[in-house]
Q: What sequence folds into this?
């Protein structure tokens, strides 16, 4: 599907500098882009690659135009990375299996699957479950009884939506993502039938996932003990993330890989957890709060607060601490010497 | 299934204060409970909610009776949280598919599946595997050859029990939990057939899981190199937990989400690992040892020892350190000034 | 399959000391080995077990011969652990389902599955996908459209290979491992159709896995945004590991459980990440670099560099810091006292 540069510029909302009649075949990185490819530039780390690129055109911000090689067309955009996302989407064709039920699909007679949905080999839809228009269940995806999956969702192989959970529209579940597993709720019973036991608290609630959410591979979102665990509109969750029961994740939040949120904690809108972060339970993280990688959050965060470390402290404090940290061993020596010098002075004084 | 408050009190072992004839429809949180719901109270954090609740009755400890709103019935229990667990179980109906084999189930001819077991669409039972009475394999659960699954177990979609592993009774595997994956065992062979290589050590052992264990979504328990990896009776494992080969987890232990235990380590009874904890290999953690969130354990722990930090130290020490930590930067400055003052004194002395 | 000790010695490249005619039935740990078992010894931690073993023979290094109980045969090897791996492989029979397609397998008509491959119940092979000779897809494994799986691979239940990804020969995917999930790539678009949104960047690339790689249970390897995510020959990846888009992992590297590597980072050959390590994006870790457990790597590492801590620093520095750390609280007290003593001296001087 070749388009002209002029077409492309129009479709991604960029201003063209150069010959609009040239044909574009696709997008590619600066380093490997060929004469019919469009690349993009936004990170100064790649300026050298920009200068050497053989791309037909590069998507750039106005300010970076000067760095383009001579003869290279430019697609100038206020948000170059967004313009690139749009360009890439034009050329990329997602895997799209045929509509309808694969002969090997297992759909319960009482389920309501839209005629334009695609249910793959070995995918399962349980009793009374609902699957919306244009939604794709790839092979091996499972939607259990009474669950509801909206329109234009994509469930990759092995993704599981347990009973009664609800997904909005355009939700993507990467392979082996789990929605609605039981929360980790037990009451320690000293007087169990055969001695002390952890008595299971029924996890009677559900998970509700709003529109435009993506959940990464092998990430787990537990159902609520009572009520709902909620993932807000447009939030994006990376791989191997744990979201415990009754957590609320605000719209547009980003949870990077291997982070975990304990029970009943609430994240505001646009919260960012970098990779491998842990957040304890029953906290409130304000809108736009940001947490650095590998941090452990053990207190509420204000709107826009940025923290790092374990336990997490304001990011600036943490930078200061991290800088001071390597000097501790020397400091110990220094104080020992200082103590000797003072002792010497004290001794002289007495004599 | 409405029951009277008096019935409910009897069934959960609580003492009723109030009108026993009122009908109860279910359990609910203090905040949302209606006039036919029973709520519970145990955490002082929710005292305000307790005072404002519209619940018919609240499960509480004797000492908290005074905080109930006037006219609200009380179900007084020595272990309120346990009483709540029992009450909730009375009203909650777990998803229970029909007994027998779903037409889309794939059960090997040589497998022994009890007539009262339920094998869902796309679930697989391998050769000579045994599945006990009342056990449920939800769609897509897999039990491989020669594995044994006890009575009244629940395997959620995508849960995998590999060949020869053994599960006791009432074991629950959340979706995509993995029992019996190969341990991470390789011998670095400098003289491999085509250069250096990591030569795989066959992981010839199994995993044995005792009665009443629960394993969370996407948690992985590796089979032993030789012998058994063992999860003791009543232990509860949260999501995304890693248990390496030849580990032994004692009865009633709790492993919170994203924790990991390296090979051959032994946990006593009732050990608690909070979230994102790591434990290195070949250690012994005594009965009742507790490890704080995000800690890294690199030495044996005594019975009842409580540790935090990475590397983990006694929890009290860790609290002291954590308090001192933020003062390091100031300390550096202070010592520098002190050094100047001492130098000044020394200089004067000489003059 | 009993073999004689002499046979065994020959087959594992060891020198026999003792009666070569004795029959061997298997391998076993020192503690439990019986009169027809071969054990091995390499870790001094187990010297006591060595001295008490009832094994027929023990695989040992020359230097450790003296510790063997009298009458116990020895299989002397330069690399005892490697020799043990070979011995164990001789006696261990991996689960090997029959060749061909199980009646419950779902193989697309356009897929090319080698006649000697084994496709289990509920396993799925997509359109135009290729599965090589001797490869096993256990029940519930999924290979999507246009993917290529080499010879003698083993895909355990629930393992997923997404569209177009490429696996070499002898690759092992443990249960629920995910190859080719979408990378976590979003452009924040302030001018989305209905307000700000995270606009998905198509993840148009693939994952390429070279020969002899093993990927652990529930580990996730994201496909590249453009181009390839690459796992080099003979690398071994443990459970619950996250490898982000466009990462390159060098040959023979070892990634221990629950580690994570952010986007576009490159690991050289033979890099070792211990458990629960995090590495940020766009870094280069040199050949043979080693990272201690729970560390966080935020800068490039030189060849052979060994680091620990978060943020990670040279391992020796980290040891020093870790030793100094517990003394900080005392140091604060000491400096306070010292300051008083100096003040006293200053006061006296003035008088």
A:
């Amino acid at each position: 599907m070749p388009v002209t540069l002029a077409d492309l510029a129009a479709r991604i909302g960029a201003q063209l500098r150069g010959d609009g009649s040239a044909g574009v075949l696709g997008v590619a990185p600066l380093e490997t882009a060929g004469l019919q490819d469009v690349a993009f530039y936004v990170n100064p780390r790649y300026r050298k690659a920009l200068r050497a690129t053989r791309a037909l055109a590069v998507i750039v911000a106005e300010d970076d135009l000067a760095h383009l090689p001579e003869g290279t067309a430019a697609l100038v955009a206020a948000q170059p990375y967004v313009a690139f996302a749009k360009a890439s989407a034009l050329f990329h064709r997602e895997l799209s299996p045929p509509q309808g039920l694969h002969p090997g699909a297992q759909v319960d007679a009482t389920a309501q699957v839209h005629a334009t949905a695609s249910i793959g080999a070995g995918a399962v839809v349980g009793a009374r479950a609902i699957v919306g228009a244009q939604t794709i269940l790839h092979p091996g995806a499972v939607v259990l009884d009474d669950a509801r999956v909206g329109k234009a969702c994509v469930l990759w192989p092995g993704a599981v939506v347990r009973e009664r959970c609800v997904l909005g529209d355009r939700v993507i579940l990467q392979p082996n993502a789990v929605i609605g597993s039981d929360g980790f709720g037990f009451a320690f019973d000293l007087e169990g039938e055969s001695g002390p036991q952890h008595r299971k608290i029924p996890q009677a609630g559900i998970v509700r996932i709003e529109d435009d959410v993506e959940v990464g591979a092998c990430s787990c979102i537990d159902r609520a003990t009572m009520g709902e665990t909620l993932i807000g509109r447009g939030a994006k969750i990376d791989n191997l993330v744990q979201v415990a029961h009754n957590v609320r994740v605000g719209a547009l939040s980003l949870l990077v890989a291997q982070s975990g949120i304990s029970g009943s904690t609430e994240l505001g809108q646009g919260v960012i957890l970098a990779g491998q972060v842990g957040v304890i339970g029953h906290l409130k993280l304000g809108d736009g709060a940001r947490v650095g990688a590998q941090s452990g959050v053990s207190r509420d965060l204000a709107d826009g607060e940025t923290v790092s470390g374990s336990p997490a402290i304001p990011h600036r404090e943490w930078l200061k601490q991290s800088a001071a940290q390597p000097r501790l061993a020397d400091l110990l020596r220094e104080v020992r010497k200082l103590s000797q010098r003072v002792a010497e002075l004290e001794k002289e004084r007495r004599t």
Observations:
- The longest helix of chain C spans residues 328-350.
- The longest strand of chain C covers residues 37-40.
- Chain C touches chain B through 66 residues (CB under 8 Å).
